[in-house]
Write a structure and sequence with these properties.
Residues 5-156 form the Oxo-4-hydroxy-4-carboxy-5-ureidoimidazoline decarboxylase domain. With 162 residues, the chain is mainly α. It has helices spanning 2-6, 9-19, 23-31, 38-50, 54-61, 76-84, 86-90, 95-108, 121-131, 136-161. It has a single domain, classed as UraD-like, CATH 1.10.3330.10.
């Protein structure tokens, strides 16, 4: 935790934005330094993610490509996204996933987000189809939870790299 607590403010901001592209989340996590241990950091990061406004969630979503699409660029978050979606991206036939993405975006107005790490394309497609049955308010809660899980996984990666 010493390395995390000692990160210069600009580097910390960059690392946290790579985890979750919502500046309010990163600012809240950074403001609570120093952390005694990982558990304290993750509890603060989790609480900050749970407390995001919907506008902040939408900012976070803006950094995520559609499921099954390869994230472009050399940024840390693009590399993480490619790794997280490796199972969905590996499929040769993505037509059903593309259609589920389109239906989802038509219904909710934003990209379908799921914690994809370790999930097959079939599991992701089933989740997308199931979530199409949600009402908008229920789906917002699911999206915020998925974004939170992704942010915490990425925060773990940041800590492991320090």
């Amino acid at each position: 935790m010493e390395s995390f607590n000692a990160l210069p403010a600009e580097r910390l901001k960059s690392e946290l934005l790579a985890c979750l592209a919502a500046p309010a989340w990163g600012a809240e996590v950074a403001a609570k330094r120093p952390y005694r241990d990982r558990a304290e950091l993750f509890a603060a990061a989790d609480a900050a993610a749970a407390g995001l406004s919907w506008d902040d969630v939408l900012l976070g979503l803006s950094a995520h490509p559609r499921i099954g699409e390869r994230a472009a660029g050399a940024s840390k978050e693009a590399a993480w996204s490619r790794a997280e979606q490796s199972a969905a991206a590996a499929s040769t036939d993505k037509s059903e996933l593309i259609e589920a993405n389109r239906l989802y975006e038509d219904k909710f107005g934003y990209v379908f987000l799921i914690f994809a790490s370790g999930r097959s394309q079939a599991e992701i497609l089933a989740a997308a189809r199931e979530r199409l049955g949600n009402d908008p308010l229920a789906e917002r809660a699911v999206v915020q939870g998925e974004l939170r899980k992704i942010a915490l996984l990425r925060l773990e990666r940041v800590l492991d790299a320090l």
